[in-house]
User: Which sequence fits this backbone?
């Protein structure tokens, strides 16, 4: 659009449908997503094709220009940015602005390809942004053209919602840095590539560095290189709930902090289903909590058919370093694992209660101390452990101290209890 040309007209849904006559009735019934129809006839709609986007998959700046101009207009007037069915090649990231709600015709119909790897970004601080009903496919990895190389890369953004989208063949789908109250829900993540030096977020579908109050729920993750979701660098008070994860190479969910001043705390991982049945990778871990992680809660998760470990809490091996502390593992179901179900390594004051463990090749629950550090003051209560080929509960090493065992039961284990620790207290266990 030249400096002398007029901007495309802004249509309300009522005006748009009236101008189309009989065709408008068809449009109302089919083309517009339900989320637009539900907002009423006076909702403003900025169709990116009215701003010059082609959606034909051709290389050039037309698609980026059209979408960017529609976003800029919507930030000024309100309403939706609508991306109709088609394939849009974006030569550089679209910069979102506060208050913009961007939707496609559906994840099977509207396809965005980020030629540089990044599709959407925003200048901080931006807020009240929504992205829905479209699919994103990655372009070149590690592009030198832009610093942002995640498909959606946000810094210090708040109240962002990404929903009903599909991310396919992407190195880093969503990167949230120091963001707050972001919702990632009902999305599909498929073939998430990764493991590139200098790119810790590569291979992780949702990477949250810092921030708080995120909700990651009801998503499906398949073929993930590093993790489905990662919470770190002080990320707190966030929930990972009701997701399904399969075919992962390393971990499903990771909570980690390598900074003594930035604990990752008060997060919840609940009611997720994790399986690696028929996957080629071995030695994986479903849920991993590493180093300075405090007061996190793992509950009601299902982990099955994995060549690896169910849950690991892992601290440093040197005294005075970083350790998981005061975390709770409760009501989880773990079965058919080639490793141990739960491993507490150099972890402090962990509560593991009411978990069901069945058919593990190694131990049901293993408490161990490595290096100079130790695991201490763990509470194992009300766990049911059946068919653990090595040991139902193993406490390794004299430095594993102060464990309380109460009301644990089970059968068909190689051994029910092997205790090498010190100051262990046992009540009504086996």
Assistant:
């Amino acid at each position: 659009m030249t400096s002398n040309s007029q901007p495309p007209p802004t249509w309300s849904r009522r005006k748009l449908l009236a101008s189309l006559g009989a065709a408008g009735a068809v449009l109302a019934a089919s083309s517009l997503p339900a989320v637009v129809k539900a907002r009423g006839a006076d909702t403003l709609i900025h169709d990116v094709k009215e701003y010059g986007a082609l959606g034909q998959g051709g290389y050039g700046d037309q698609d980026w220009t059209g979408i960017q101009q529609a976003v800029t207009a919507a930030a000024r007037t309100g309403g939706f940015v609508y991306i109709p069915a088609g394939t849009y090649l974006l030569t550089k990231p679209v910069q979102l602005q506060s208050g913009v709600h961007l939707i496609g015709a559906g994840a099977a119909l509207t396809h965005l390809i980020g030629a540089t790897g990044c599709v959407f970004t925003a200048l901080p601080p931006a807020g009240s942004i929504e992205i829905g009903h479209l699919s994103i496919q990655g372009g070149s990895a590690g592009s030198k053209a832009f610093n942002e190389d995640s498909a959606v890369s946000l810094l210090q953004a708040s109240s962002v919602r990404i929903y009903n989208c599909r991310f396919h063949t992407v190195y880093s789908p969503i990167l949230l840095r120091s963001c707050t109250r972001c919702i990632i829900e009902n999305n599909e993540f498929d073939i998430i590539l990764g493991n590139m030096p200098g790119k810790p977020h590569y291979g992780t579908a949702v990477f949250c560095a810092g921030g708080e109050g995120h909700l990651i729920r009801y998503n499906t993750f398949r073929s993930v290189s590093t993790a489905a979701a990662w919470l770190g660098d002080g990320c707190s008070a966030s929930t990972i709930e009701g997701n399904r994860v399969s075919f992962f190479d390393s971990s499903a969910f990771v909570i980690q902090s390598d900074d003594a001043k930035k604990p990752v705390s008060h997060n919840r991982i609940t009611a997720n289903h994790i399986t690696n049945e028929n996957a080629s990778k071995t030695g994986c871990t479903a849920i991993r909590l590493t180093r300075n992680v405090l007061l996190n809660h793992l509950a009601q998760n299902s982990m099955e058919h994995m060549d690896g470990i169910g849950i690991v809490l892992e601290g440093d091996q040197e005294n005075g370093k970083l350790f998981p502390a005061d975390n709770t593992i409760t009501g989880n179901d773990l079965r058919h694992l080639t490793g141990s179900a739960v491993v507490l390594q150099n972890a402090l004051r962990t509560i593991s209660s009411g978990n069901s463990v069945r058919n593990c090749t190694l131990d049901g629950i293993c408490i161990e101390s490595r290096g100079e550090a130790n695991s201490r003051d763990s509470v194992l209560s009300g766990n049911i452990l059946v068919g653990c080929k090595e040991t139902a509960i193993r406490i390794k090493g004299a430095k594993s101290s102060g464990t309380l065992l109460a009301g644990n039961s089970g059968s068909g284990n190689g051994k029910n209890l092997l205790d090498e620790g010190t100051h262990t207290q046992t009540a009504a266990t086996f």
